[in-house]
Amino acid sequence: MEPSPEPIRVLVCGAWGQMGRQAVAAVLSEPDLTLVGAVDPAGQGHPLTEIDARAPADLCCGRMLGATLDETEPQVMVDFTSPAVVRDNVETALKRGVACVVGTTGLSPTDLQVIDRTARRHQTACVVAPNFSLGAVLMMRFAAEAANSFDFVEIIERHHEHKADAPSGTALRTAELIRAARKRPLSAATTTHDKLPGSRGGAVDNLHIHAVRLPGYVAEQEVIFGGRGEVLRIEHSTTSRECFMPGMLLAIRKVRELEGLVVGLENIM
Question: What is the pTM of this model?
Answer without folding.
Answer: 0.83
